[in-house]
Each structure stands twice: as structure tokens, then as C-alpha cells.
Amino acid sequence: MQIEKNKVAVIDYSVKTAEGQMIDTSEGTEPLAFLCGFHNIVPGLESALVGKSEGDQVEVVVNPDEAYGQYNQEMVKEVPLSAFQGVEKVEEGMQFQAESPNGPQLITVTKVENEMVTVDGNHPLAGIELHFDVTVKQVRDASEEEIAHGHVHGEGGHHH
Ligand code: ZN
Asked: Would you state the pLDDT for residue 87?
């Protein structure tokens, strides 16, 4: 069985930067299961996996346009410290979930200085070329419920 729309693929993966720095890996945790055709994974990786089947190993380089987008300087903003009410101490590296017109957005605090906080709304992997190494462990039909929800249930997927 091949990976295509409405199939569930279970993969082992690691992803590194162009310099070889490990960003994320399924090694040591559970494999990742995704429902093909529903934007569960970055587009560049999904399109590289379409047509592959169990046992296939895929190495693919995904540029930012096919992953988390280019780095956008306009998404870096300064806000007053007083905007962070209820947060005991605002520190560099903290991440917050904010509502944006495009849905929930992760913002990262990059600087705290003189009662002003610099926040970066770019995805932490924006502007980064991703080097994936993937092994396809399993390909199966998705259930009707999974297709209705747009994601995988059970092992490697959503538990609800
Ligand atoms: Zn569901």
C-alpha cells in the first residue's frame, strides 16, 4: 500500500538543519502517524512521501516555503511589560500562545529590557531549511472517523 490521500502513514523520522544540528526526532519516543492530504505535516515532507510504502527510506531537503515559511521581520514586535499581566516573571525564551487571524500562534520572548518586551511571532523553524530522514513503518487505510476529524487516532496520533 502506498502513501496517498486518506491513508495513514506511520513514520520514524529525524530532522536536522543544513549544518547537521538535530531539530527533532522520533527516536526514543513513539513514531509519528499522519493522515495524508490533511496538512498534518509540512507540505514539502508530505509531497516527498506520497507514493512511498512500508520499508521505504526517504531523505528529503525541504525549503522554508514548503515548511514553516520564511522569517518575517514584521512579526517581531515590542510590547510593554505591563501587557503580560498574570505572568510572574517574563524572561527571554518564554513562549506564549496568542490568538491571531490565522488561528493560534506561538510567540517567543526574545528580549526583556527597560519594561519593554520583544516578542517574535515567527514559527521557531521559520526560515530554516529542514533535512528530513524518514523511514516508513506502516501505511494503512484511514477510518471514516479519522478522515472526518482530519487527523490520526490511536498510536502516534490523537488520543481523545
Ligand atoms: Zn479526532
From this structure: 86
